Amino acid sequence: MNIAIIGGGPGGLYLAALMKQLDPAHEITVWERNASDDTFGFGVVFSDETLGGIENADTTVARAMARRFARWTDIDIHYRGESHTVGGQGFAAMSRKELLRLLQERCRDLGVTLRFSTLAPDTARLCASYDLVVGADGVNSAVRAAHADVFRPSLDRRRSKYMWLGTDRVFEAFQFFIKQTEWGVVQVHGYPYSDTGSTFIVEMHEDVWRRAGFDATEGAGFAPGASDEQAVARVRELFADELGGHQVFANNSKWLNFTTVRNERWHHGNLVLIGDAAHTAHFSIGSGTKLAMEDALALAACLHEHPDTEGALAAYETERRPVVESTQRAAQGSLEWFENIGMYVHQEPTQFCFNLLTRSRRITYDNLRTRDPEFADRVDMAFAAAQGLDGVAPAMFQPYRLGGLELRNRVIVSPMDMYSAVDGVPGDFHLVHLGSKAMGGAGLVMTEMVCVSPEGRITPGCTGLWNDEQRESWRRIVSFVHERGTARIGLQLGHSGRKGSTRLMWEGMDDPLPEGNWEVVGPSPLPYGPGSAVPRELNRADLDRITADFVAAARRGAEAGFDLLELHCAHGYLLSSFLSPIANHRTDEYGGPLENRLRFPLEVFDAVREAWPAERPLIVRVSATDWVPDGNTEHDAVEIARAFIAHGADAIDVSSGQVTKDERPAFGRSYQTPFADRIRHEVAAATGAAVIAVGAIASYDDVNSLLLAGRADLCAVGRTHLYDPHWTLHAAAEQEYRGPGAEWPVQFRAGGRKPPASRTDAVRPRLSLLRPGPADQAVHQRWIPPREPAPVS
User: Fold this and answer.
1) Which of 47-56, 647-656, 740-749 shows the lowest per-residue confidence on average (mean pLDDT)?
2) Backbone phi, then psi, for 488, in 5-degree steps?
3) CA–CA dist 692, 715 (Å, integer)
4) The FAD-binding domain covers which part of the protein (predicted)?
5) Tens digit of pLDDT for each residue in 636-685?
6) In the CATH scheme, what is the code of domain 402-667+715-743?
7) Are the beta carbons of 375 and 86 closer than 8 angstroms?
8) Rounded distance, CA 556 to CA 467, Å?
9) Most CB atoms within 10 A, among 241, 506, 560, 732?
10) Which residue of the set 191, 419, 573, 700 is catalytic?
């Protein structure tokens, strides 16, 4: 192949070397606008996983890199005058300048043509002349910009400011300096990259940056390669104690806003993007260099494995996109955590450190326990001590008092519609469904949305509480739960609104009924989506009638014996649709600004609060974001939560979306939990109200991690309980926990121990002559640069 590579950074150079290694007959030219010895930045960090790939692909490059690595396992977190060390992580870093130099040497040795200080020809010309053209020209990619109509990029410019610096203080480990100043929180991400220097990245929210006066040079025109020396001087002063007399160095160092780059496509014809030109991930979770070199390896492999360029580029994108998107999800969580770091500075130091380490949701409690058991023990003890609890039990099995209700543990079976009632009456199916979940160990089991009227149903199969027959059937289920285990049971009340009169889920979710349908209503005559029924706009008399329906249903729920009531103000149902500007276009006192959109849901809440027994908790489920432009955001959710708590809500159950069919959720593991985190820290913690996290929480490790980090008080788990009704008890068995937080029904206790399997049944012999040393020798490794031997006299 005849290959043109635009950009002589690590990704472009590594791709050139790999392609030449695979086939010396390839003719490869690399264009780089900067000189060969121009290097911006200081150190780059690699994971063991990436290094393994480099070693398998090119042992020459791998050996050269290994000779230059600074290696360590520890992270030091400096917070509130204390330093906390967590080990077992595993880092390798080196000078960016050294990396570029060795990659350039490798390319020259293999016969790659390198053209430095040279702008690449127009990409259209290159595409016509070369078999393959690679855009490896970084975050400000000219290739991407020139073909934006094809790649369709989105550039998410974030709110925090950061500056990339270096220091001659050689850190022994990764450093987080969290500095509380009169202007707000400023943090440093630091790590060693050689025996002479360390990377020193200063970051702060833009509001802090302005209050601190760092905006004095905003808009200043700096010459290419020049640094903001005024800002660098202030950084030296601000972090004088942390630097301990050492210097800070600049290299094209200016204040930047991190931009997350995404592209709908990475290739077109014989043109392809790699590295920062295709995607970026925030520096707080790793290195763009790492991603670029992984791209290069995957692209070279696909080009070698496929006979045609189009097939190879399609395979490359198919292979790499899921990896990159997973990394970007983690990076998004991390960068947002640092943007909002001011929310967490009230936390006790051990919890703060755990929160910081688990910010991306990639690292969890179990990960940390494997890496540094002593630190995990400290996290457990700090969590228990802060709440006056037993430090032995895992966080998920610690008790919780929700209003006047004592829960044995912090696991909730989330409300899940079953669409299996007849005329709103729950039957044997619901008894088995909810009864099995209650006997499965959860502290609280929630009903599906129980509708307050026949017209308030989603489907003909929805349950209700608009008559006494329904109440008595619910009483039977509640009694079973109370008699057969330690779980409590909660009632979720709601009205379908504009999402009503639809088929059963498995017959066509949200599809209108073909016949026998009923009138749907809403705040405005706006359908839920294409093909949905147009709702009738509610008038004053309708609002009064619906409020009365909620009150009557709440009273029947209390009579049936439910321990808790949740008002459903989420997922686009009636009360949710009043809250959302997407569904509510009213011009009266119930529409317009959020204060008005809150009015009817709060009226219903107040009426239900008066009807519901004072000693039993009343909670609210909200959609924290509509996932569409011009809809509610997490900032609106904070104010919605604040309003309900002010009216007496004991907890906020934080879900998201389902308000419109046009939504574009950012799905992923625990993807909704950052919304719960924000509401807990900005509103609930100060009021004593609880926050419930929900949304793709799929493991007990996730539950423990969320609780220990202080992101939620309780966790609602839905689909996982459909997969395994005894999920909570099995989680206890997996963690070898036996205690009041997870009591097996007496009939099932014989099954309370995990059955042996082929891997656990065998007793293994001892095959090592010497036992491993103390755990801390392996867990904690510092970067101590080798010293030159003293001269012999």
Assistant:
1) 47-56
2) -105, 160
3) 5
4) 3-328
5) 999 999 999 999 999 999 999 999 999 999 888 888 999 999 999 999 88
6) 3.20.20.70
7) yes
8) 8
9) 732
10) 573
Mean pLDDT of 757-764: 66
Rg of the chain over all Cα atoms, to the nearest angstrom: 30
Q: Give the relative orientation of helices 48-57 and 288-305 as an angle to the nearest 10 degrees.
A: 40
User: How many Å apart are CA 21 and CA 18, to the nearest integer?
Assistant: 5
Q: Is 573 known to be catalytic?
A: yes
What DSSP element (H or E) covers 59? helix 59-66
- Rounded to whole angstroms, the Cα distance separating 461 from 449 reads 11
Specify the DSSP element, H or E, that contains 4: strand 2-6
- Alpha-carbon distance of 23 to 1, in angstroms, equals 9
3-state secondary structure 647-673: CCCCEEEEECCCCCCCCCCCCCCCCCH
pLDDT digits (tens, 9 = 90+) for 626-647: 999 999 999 999 999 999 999 9
Alpha carbons 738 and 15: distance in angstroms, whole number: 54
Q: Residue 602: helix, strand or coil by DSSP?
A: helix
Every domain range in the chain assigned CATH 3.20.20.70: 402-667+715-743
Q: Is the pTM of this model over 0.90?
A: yes
| Vertex 91 angle, CA 85 and 96, to 5° | 125
Mapped onto helix, strand or coil, the DSSP state of residue 203 is: strand
- CA distance linking residue 554 with residue 490, whole number of Å: 12
Q: Are 653 and 622 in contact (CB under 8 A)?
A: yes
Distance between CA atoms of 179 and 183, rounded to whole angstroms?
Answer: 10
From 358, 281, 289, 361, select the one nearest 327 (Cα to Cα). 281
- Is 488 in contact with 562 (CB distance < 8 Å)? no
Q: Give me the count of residues in the chain.
A: 793
At 521, phi and psi to the nearest 5? Answer: -130, 165
Q: Which of 214-218, 435-439, 771-775 has the lowest mean pLDDT?
A: 771-775
Pairing of strands 132-135, 198-205: unpaired
Q: Quote the pLDDT of residue 259.
A: 95
pLDDT of residue 789: 53
Give start-end residues of each CATH 3.50.50.60 domain in the chain.
2-218+226-340
| Two structure tokens written together for 431 | 């008894």
Summarize the confidence of residues 752-775 as an average pLDDT: 68
pLDDT of residue 772: 58
Classified by CATH at the fold level, domain 2-218+226-340 comes out as FAD/NAD(P)-binding domain (3.50.50)
